[in-house]
Amino acid sequence: xxxxxxxxxxxxxxxxxxxxxxxxxxxxxxxxxxxxxxxxxxxxxxxxxxxxxxxxxxxxxxxxxxxxxxxxxxxxxxxxxxxxxxxxxxxxxxxxxxxxxxxxxxxxxxxxxxxxxxxxxxxxxxxxxxxxxxxxxxxxxxxxxxxxxxxxxxxxxxxxxxxxxxxxxxxxxxxxxxxxxxxxxxxxxxxxxxxxxxxxxxxxxxxxxxxxxxxxxxxxxxxxxxxxxxxxxxxxxxxxxxxxxxxxxxxxxxxxxxxxxxxxxxxxxxxxxxxxxxxxxxxxxxxxxxxxxxxxxxxxxxxxxxxxxxxxxxxxxxxxxxxxxxxxxxxxxxxxxxxxxxxxxxxxxxxxxxxxxxxxxxxxxxxxxxxxxxxxxxxxxxxxxxxxxxxxxxxxxxxxxxxxxxxxxxxxxxxxxxxxxxxxxx
Length: 426
What we know:
Elements: H1 10-55, H2 61-68, H3 72-92, H4 97-100, H5 102-122, H6 126-158, H7 165-192, H8 196-216, H9 243-265, H10 267-273, H11 280-300, H12 306-330, H13 333-361, H14 367-392, H15 398-425
């Protein structure tokens, strides 16, 4: 048996005095990393849930049409109201979390979506639909930039020195993946649960409230606000030296998000009227396929060059658009699913290429302003073409209206490709 001995010299005593705080510091730092890691996954969950709720009404539009006799044009107006709310919020409140903190603004954004869910649950008339979609859009516009930045900052503390790759992947999956999960969940609940115009929104309201509670106990990453800060809306700045490439990038996302708009607003009605499929679960599945393909292809092409992403994305968009139009003309659900998946992959790839192009073109001091213009074009593309399609459906039948939509979109794709080639040569 050995006996432990302790050195009581001043040097040894000093060494022990330093070692103990060092150990406590290490433990404190480990707890801090774990706290931020839990916050990272909490924010990712809240982000995905809110985006899922944003796209959740898609399979239910047919029920609103049947209950209140709404036209296709009215449905596209309801959807466009959401897109308008997102765009307005992006430019008026999307940057406020830099000053007031991520937690506070995300909690407010999610609370707005809870309010929208309560409106959906309480009323089903047109005014309520417009109000709920507008409030939801305002919340999503406020959430998107704040949640993406929050994930990056939490990840930097939770995994120091590991880079931001995980945060970028999780933000992409939460954003676009959430948009796909929303219609799928709503479609399944509408098909198999009672009270389809109530149950889905009750489930989402519960999940969003839980999300707010998770966020408010997460670590705040914005601790130093600017005392001299004054409010101004987000500006849009186009790089003067590269306007051709910039506008080509915005045209890419315009066409791509027009496909998102089509599948988020009118596709369920197409299934019902043209394909004779009345299943809400199938309507949700169609939207899910499009968004899941977009998220998956963004991850798959993450290490490709911008040129490769642009070429492949344009090709997929063109092929997917042709397949979707063909599916509606020949009334084929199989081809609609395949076309939606191909088009979704094209949207995800072209968006990634367009965003990378804008980041490369803009000066560091004006990067957020240049990206703001790109996002504005995304939501214009999501709203305007489907509104025009809804208007066309008031005067012509479905097939010629969809063929016209396809021709216009293909013409825009060809124009975009030509502009990209010319500006790249310059």
